Backbone:
């Protein structure tokens, strides 16, 4: 199975889960964006007052759950706004490739406007 069909199967599974519970009525773009942000914050909270290494060692299982929630909401948001995730990610990667050329940014953590 290729990654595109795996992504499509994930989308279908998420929609099936949602539809079996009659939750689509709550899944408008604004509320999905809010939920996406909240779940990302829950992932971030796992790092509070810890080094990256400590946080991962202590919270990896919870991180998996929070990351899954983030991705589920991202997929639901894309579905509700009729966005093709593969296409928009590839477009963004192309823009980033132009914005951050290898010869200027390899091994650097500066933004494009700081160079």
Residues:
């Amino acid at each position: 199975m290729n990654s595109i069909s795996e992504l499509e199967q994930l989308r279908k599974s998420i929609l099936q889960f949602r539809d079996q519970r009659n939750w689509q009525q709550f899944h408008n773009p604004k509320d999905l964006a809010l939920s996406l942000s909240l779940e990302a914050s829950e992932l971030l909270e796992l790092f509070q007052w810890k080094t990256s290494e400590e946080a991962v060692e202590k919270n990896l299982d919870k991180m998996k759950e929070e990351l899954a929630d983030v991705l589920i909401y991202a997929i639901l948001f894309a579905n509700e706004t009729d966005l093709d995730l593969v296409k928009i990610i590839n477009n963004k990667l192309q823009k980033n490739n132009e914005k951050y050329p290898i010869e200027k940014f390899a091994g650097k953590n500066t933004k494009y406007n700081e160079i």
Q: What stands out?
A: DSSP finds five helices and no strands in the chain. The chain has a mean pLDDT of 94. The longest helix spans residues 52-80. Helices lie at 3-20, 29-45, 52-80, 85-99, 102-105.
